[in-house]
Amino acid sequence: MSADWKGAIDCDVHPHVPNIDALKKHMNEYWRETVEVRGITAFESVAYPPNAPITLRPDWRADKAKGRARADTDAGRTAAALMDRHGFAHSILNCLYAVQLIRDEHMAAAFCSAVNDWMRAEWLDRDPRYRASIVLPLQNPELAVEEIERCAADKRFVQVLALAMGEQPLGKSHFWPVWKAAEKHGLAIGIHAGSSYHHATTGSGWPSYYLEDYAAQSLAFHTQLGSFIAEGVFVKFPKLKLVLIESGVTWIGPYLWRLSKFWRGVRLEVPWIDRSPIEFVRDHVRLTIQPFDAPASGETVGRLMDQLQSDEMLLFASDFPHWQFDNDDMMPVGIDATLRKKILIDNPLATYARLV
Amino acid sequence: MPLDDPMGPAITTANGKGSAAPNRLAVIDGDIHPAVRSMADFKPYLSKRWWDHYETYGMRRKHGSSNGEPYPKSAPLACRRDAWPEEGGRPGSSLRLMQEQHLDAYGVEHGILGPLGNTGQGEMNLELSAAMCSATNDWQRDTFTRPEKRLKGGLVVPYEDGVASAKEIERCGADTDFGQVFLLTRSSEPLGSRRYWPIYEAAERYNLPIGFHVFGTSGHPVSGAGWPSYYIEEGAGHSTSCQTVVTSLVIEGVFERFPKLKVVMIEGGFAWAPALAFRLDKVFERLRSEVPHLKRRPSEYIRDHVYFTTQPMEEPDDRRHVLDIMDWIGWDKLLFASDYPHWDFDDPFRAFPAGVTTEQHRRIVAENGKSVFRLN
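Predict the joint structure of the above. Result:
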């Protein structure tokens, strides 16, 4: 592949917290002691089993024989694999350390702060091309707002991060103080695939296989999108941008046709929604392109892109280090040069106000 | 209506009967909802023990409401305002009105019933669930399918108890009055789980398809994202539940184990299916070592085993988009359904966008159902 990636903005890169000691450095004495006295070893979820094929591309895995750690634990190696190799302008870090699993909201806030400060020290300070999302203790919206206020002065944070599966749908007014703070600071809201596992991962309970958990992520995005629209978040906060990260793109058109048809039928229930859901999505919602959920057929992809009825909705993402593609095949077939440039550069710039 | 379709929609005359144009399609309607006038209609079909139990404790499902809905509908009982019988009772409870207003008016040759409400499905007391399901099937037969041969019953089973469900299929499955086994999408565990396999084994044996109709009370929110606030979200979310069902059936290996099984996804629309198949194929490519019981790609199982009723039709601004979807699913896999007597009713002659050819329309409305539902 000799495709030109220069200047691209990679909107989904995952730095991996190597161990709890890395976070302890960024905790106050009380929490350091808590971690030690209570024997807390980690908060890691089952979302990415370390040896599952999807979790790490083979060339980014740890290699014990060579004494090499996994590539996503190191800012330099990650930069080499992405920004150096391809000439990307920026990589946006979405740390998936599982702070969402924590039931104690104070502990969640302490771990979020530690993760955010770890990203600053070990990633953002190491390479000026990195940008990051603020990890939030959404267990308690007040604490989440405090974390935004604590981090927002650092312009390298361009987004706040939530997972697709939490306690309750993210459009509910319970979370509005958080979205208000995000809007105030020009931070996009990123919802990433993943779960707090406070609910089963499907609407019919827990499935048998990991594959089903991963597939079910897109269904949680259906719920989140419906929630943001029906609750009127975009009416209340008209400057917000919502980015749906790591769960495909081809599901959104069909869901919006259904949602918009229902809206025509039952809009008496949500009178604050003064436009079709499709219009809100075109103005406010963006999706990252990996994993791309379509066959490798240019003709089919072309038709699917037409369903979006917009060339502004898709954002480039490598989803490093997850194994979504081989070699440098990060862009699906069937994307023409004009759309490609929008996905790589223009759309991310228009989405992340703090990038420019 | 398709632009090139010479057959117009039914013309309703002053007496409520449809016109009898000789070249009208003989419609197969995959989703008609019969109803009881009141719960007393079930009494003759329940033992004293279970009637007394019902009278004393009522029904208990995993949503906590004994009367009323957690997501109130946008119309009483979510029904068409013109579907309330003059003689009283709920929409769907009058065979006479159903015949006049729907079967005759639209030239329905076969209508497949899907009983909803207090049918025993999802009831937490499994013995009560089984007794109510049996009562529902017997009532359905006496009230609808025996007097009206155009109607075929939906064999309701107490699906949270797979063994009891198989027994109910044994009890009724040989009766040609039943055209499908009827389940709801929101079950307590994903529907590919082994606890439900006795249902699939029995259905396959009796050559009955499984109809998975939206709704049900799993006790879980519609997805892992939690409980939404509004009926619009609940309604739109049914397509999400359908995807949970199809994913589970495919990935847990139901179609490997029961290769002759056919399933019909009812009232969840269909436009979601290609994106789901693309997604499952993509994930399968990477994670197939976890599911070695699957011999083919997920999309291939879907293509061979899963049918979709079309109501409520998705309506994109550009109709070519839904035509692409229908193309990808396969014109042999789509089945017309009206959802009579509910408010979001689809008309067999008006629901389909221009661009659906006469032949494609004929297959969806009058042909495909013959090889799916057990219509003799």
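The first helix of chain A runs from residue 20 to 24.
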